[in-house]
Amino acid sequence: MRxxxxxxxxxxxxxxxxxxxTAVLGVLYPAVVWGVGRMGSDSAEGSPVxxxxxxxxxxxxxxxxxxxxxxxxxxxxxxxxxxxxxxADPFAPGDPAAALPTNQGxxxxxxxxxxxxxxxxxxxxxxVSPYDxxxxxxxxxxSGIDPDISPAYAAIQVPRVAAATGLxxxxxxxxxxxxxxxxxxxxxxxxxxxxxxxxxxxxxxxxDCGTAGG
Length: 214
Prior knowledge:
Helix content is about 40%, strand content about 5%. It has helices at about 1-35, 110-125, 135-140, 150-165, 170-180, 195-200, and strands spanning about 50, 55-60, 150, 180, 190-195.
């Protein structure tokens, strides 16, 4: 009888521990992680960016270079070039492999040719000297999908965007300033401009979402 009572007490204690751990680790902890993961702008939902119609146009964490219309002016800011040099095209538009990092080193002739081709094309597009094209415009990030560009790269694009959109250069520069983020914690990294968020401010919309225009 004494053995049975002791055994039942141990079973009851074990059951209470099981229930407590289930509540804490199976309910409370996941709920806290879920809540924290959705705090702030960089949430676990993918940090979607919405246009003026409320339709998602992309993620603030993923850089996708907008494709200019073939029969009209180019009204948007462009992101950094792809990280990969596997494609014959230095800009590799629409190529999923372009998001892969390159294994070409500083002494690579292939990488140097891509950099020069990009420099020439960007200088022609923006109407500036090749020497005015900043480094981040012609080199890819490690991920190949950097969502940000330097203020210097944004600055050389202002005249083209202002002319294409009909906005004054001063207004476009104001939008660039509004979407320029400072260094993290005041000393890490460099100032940067989020291309997608800036283009949304200029009128970029999702082509296939409710009443959103192309």
